[in-house]
Design goal:
The chain is built from 14 helices and 12 strands. By secondary structure, it is of the alpha+beta class. The chain has 4 domains: 34 residues, no CATH class; 40 residues; 114 residues, Phosphorylase Kinase, domain 1 (2-Layer Sandwich), CATH 3.30.200.20; 217 residues, Transferase(Phosphotransferase) domain 1 (Transferase(Phosphotransferase), domain 1, Orthogonal Bundle), CATH 1.10.510.10. The chain has a 6-stranded antiparallel sheet with strand order 3-7-8-6-5-4. A two-stranded parallel sheet has the order 1-2. Its EC number is 2.7.11.1.
Length: 436
């Protein structure tokens, strides 16, 4: 250092205390190093001496901060696990929600907090049905079994049990039905009023408005010991059921956004209230069609529908459309007039219900056509008999082999409404002039 002729350490961000060997250099040689002291510079103060310990202090502070953060993280994780266990425990018991009877908009959720008029408890349903005993079964559909449940307080509801299954598509049945029914309201569609789900029981329960008079199938095809009940299903009631069905299907196809394909229209899914008004139910197989719907995906991967009601094109396309719903509706209309099931053995091996009707409608003479009308309806008034044949004509349009030749559900509904109104006009004319 004694042989060094010039030294310039200015502005190097140096720190610490200079030794005595630097004392003969001018202060300019160390300018700009604010953390230096000693030598030609000012003597080191107490604070400067302390600042020399800043590096070790930082290490200690960093260690403390890290340990504190780890402790907080562990505490937060413990709280999360605790609340998660409590949540899963609540879910594993029962989740019951009741819907409001009012709906301000079709697209708003059906089930909303704070709208409940009452709660449907899992235990109450189990108690009322002896743990869903077979004695309380009133029907079954493509997505589950239906029970009649009389609750405390006198209320009666219909409860559909849907089991959880391993198959991916069937697992979606409960969610799909709740979402579909939750956003639609129509006088001819069965109303879903709530639901319960239990992981412990491995099933879901859909709670419906109860229909006092069962299904159209019950009235048309019940056993002989109940023939008195069957005879009360007169022509006007059957025509009204057909019109109600068409109005419900029209709503699904034309007034819902996105439109809804029912996929399983049949007489056992047409439920009747105390006024014998038709309500279309069992939406477990319903499929909402989006505008960007990909016909090569889900609709091709699973089978839906009931034998005898399925449109012929579904056998090779596996694609449900509005026109396949219209076909199924046409089969039900024939069922209402004829009183026969779609798979009736009297049709023969090489003939189905549609061809059977076509054959008799083509025949000349009243006797052949009369075979198309349910004997339980006879005798019909002339205006009623004429309306019955007109209803069969509409049904044949709905069941055309080519889907494009079938009317839309709206067109079919308009024809049925016109037929119903004209039938009433003809009936009034006959009452005013019985000899006309």
């Amino acid at each position: 250092m004694s042989s060094l002729g010039k030294l310039n350490l200015s502005f190097n961000n140096l720190q610490g205390k200079l030794g005595e060997q630097f004392s003969h250099w001018p202060t300019e040689a160390f300018e700009g190093n604010l953390q230096l002291c000693g030598g030609p510079l000012d003597h080191c103060s107490v604070s400067s001496q302390r600042s020399g310990l800043s590096e070790s202090s930082v290490v200690v502070i960093s260690a403390i901060t890290t340990l504190t953060a780890v402790a907080l993280l562990a505490f937060g994780l413990a709280l999360f696990i605790k609340h998660r266990r409590e949540f899963l425990k609540r879910v594993s018991e029962v989740n019951c929600i009741y819907s409001s009877s009012s709906s301000q908009a079709q697209r708003k959720p059906l089930f909303m907090k704070g709208t409940a008029k009452r709660d449907y408890r899992w235990d109450d349903i189990m108690e009322a049905t002896n743990n869903l005993s077979d004695d309380f079964i009133i029907g079954s559909g493509g997505s589950g079994t239906v029970y009649r449940v009389g609750l405390k307080g006198g209320e009666t509801v219909a409860v559909k049990k849907i089991l959880w299954k391993d198959e991916f598509l069937l697992n979606k049945s409960f969610t799909r039905e709740v979402k579909t029914l939750g956003r639609i309201r129509h006088r001819h569609l069965v109303k879903l009023i709530g639901y319960c789900s239990s992981k412990g029981a491995g099933c879901n329960l859909l709670i419906y408005e109860f229909m006092e008079n069962g299904s159209s199938w019950d009235w048309l095809h019940q056993q002989p010991e109940n023939i008195k009940k069957r005879q009360s299903l007169d022509w006007e009631t059957r025509l009204k059921i057909g019109l109600g069905l068409a109005q419900g299907v029209e709503y699904l196809h034309h007034d819902c956004v996105p439109k809804i394909i029912h996929r399983d229209i049949k007489s056992s899914n047409i439920l009747l209230d105390s006024n014998m008004e038709a309500h279309l139910g069992d939406f477990g197989l319903a499929k909402a069609l989006e505008e960007n719907y990909d016909s090569n995906t889900e609709s091709h991967s699973w089978f839906a529908g009931s034998y005898g009601y399925i449109a012929p094109e579904y056998a090779y396309s596996l694609k449900a459309t509005e026109k396949s719903d219209v076909y199924s509706m046409g089969i039900v209309l024939i069922e209402l007039v004829s009183g026969k099931m779609p798979t009736d053995a009297s049709f023969g091996v090489d003939m189905d219900m549609v061809r059977w009707v076509e054959k008799h409608m083509e025949m000349q003479g009243g006797c052949a056509r009369e075979e198309l009308i349910d004997p339980a309806l006879k005798p019909l008034l002339p205006c009623e008999e004429s309306a019955a044949y007109q209803l069969l004509e509409i049904a044949l349009q709905c069941t055309k082999t080519t889907p494009q030749e079938r009317p839309s559900s709206r067109q079919a509904c308009d024809q049925l409404l016109h037929l119903y109104k004209n039938r009433m006009v003809d009936f009034d004319k006959m009452n005013n002039d019985p000899y006309s």
